[in-house]
Amino acid sequence: MLRTETDRHQDIGRQVITLEAEALTRLAETVNGSFARAVSAILACRQRVVVSGMGKSGHIARKVAATLAATGTPAHFVHAAEAAHGDAGMVMPGDLLLIFSNSGDTAELQPLYAHARRLSVAIIGVSRNRDSLLIRKADIGLLLPPMPEACTASMAPTTSSTMMLALGDALAVAAMRARGLSGDDIRALHPGGEIGRRMRTVADVMHGPDRLPLVPMGAGMAEVVAMMTDKRLGLTGVTDADGNLVGVISDGDLRRHIGDMASATARDVMTPDPKLIERTASVDDALEMMRAHRITVLFIVPAAGLHRPIGAVQIYDIAASPPWGQ
After folding, report:
1. Spans of the chain, pLDDT less than 50
2. Phi, psi dihedrals of residue 47, rounded to the nearest 5°
3. N or C, where is the chain less crowded by C-beta within 10 Å?
């Protein structure tokens, strides 16, 4: 059977990914005391981690700086070439330099070495070349394993930049875990986008106590309808003498009991055992519960086992509100 151009493209794609995956496996095997010292240096940094590089290594450095900042380590990127034209001033006493260079001999990095030495700023160097200028200048050297690049003639940074990216992620996450960052800490650093949306709790988007449509079990239908109309959440909660939620009345419940409206009480019409959710639950948990039970409103309680509602959330609140809350 003749191989098509599509077959060849797919084969090359698999080869590249396989080679880079092998490189990452080899990289993991090289993690040693130098890596641990680098993490300790990041944790001990009094100011910011300044990340730099040139070319493709510079692109990786910019991403690593963003990852460090997003995981609790103050960091920013300095372009190596711009450092010689004034941006070296972005490196201050108390900072820590993290420099990426595949060859380790990139000329544009040399002004940063000199500036760091003047300020007694420590350097973490990442390179594949043990004998490079970067590794010689660095206080802590992190060596990439000698893997071929994935491109033809093994020239363009591909495998090497993948390893740099993974090593930067490893440094950032190791520092984050050592600091013991909580979910709330990470949430504060990601107020927008998908991460911010997923990390919101129902307490962030709930309607508070003043918006709760609640009636006692003995309430008549006129009171139920008035409460539902006033609070505009599409249902009414029914409470016992202690204020615990024991049932809900929806539009559907009213329609099913239309013939009993003159004499029925909330207890007669309500659907018992309403679904409750804790205030610390995520909005994703709330959406999943709503979809599973085909409902659009959940009453919120302070903690598991409690039944006195402190708020309510509609499916529209979760879908429409911005990631950073209301």
Report:
1. 190, 321-326
2. -115, -105
3. N
Which residue has tokens 């993974």?
166
Flag whether 188 is in a domain.
no
Report how far residue 93's alpha carbon sits from residue 132's, in angstroms, rounded to the nearest whole number. 25
How many domains, in total, are found in the chain? 2
Amino acid sitting at position 275:
K
Residue with tokens 């970067």: 134
Please report whether residue 36 resides in a domain. yes
In a domain, 32, yes or no: yes
Q: CATH number of the domain that 66 lies in? A: 3.40.50.10490
> What digits encode the pLDDT tens for the residues 269-317?
898 988 899 988 888 888 888 888 888 888 999 888 888 999 888 887 7
Yes or no: say if 284 and 323 are a contact pair by the CB < 8 Å rule: no
Task: Tell me, rounded to whole angstroms, the distance of Cα 207 from its chain centroid.
Answer: 25
CA 116 to CA 135: how far, in whole Å?
14
Rounded Cα gap, residues 107 and 99, in angstroms: 13
Q: Where are the alpha helices (DSSP H) in the chain?
A: 5-30, 33-44, 56-70, 80-83, 110-119, 133-137, 159-179, 183-189, 193-199, 202-205, 221-231, 251-256, 266-269, 283-293, 315-320
Per-residue confidence (pLDDT) for residue 103, from 0 to 100:
92
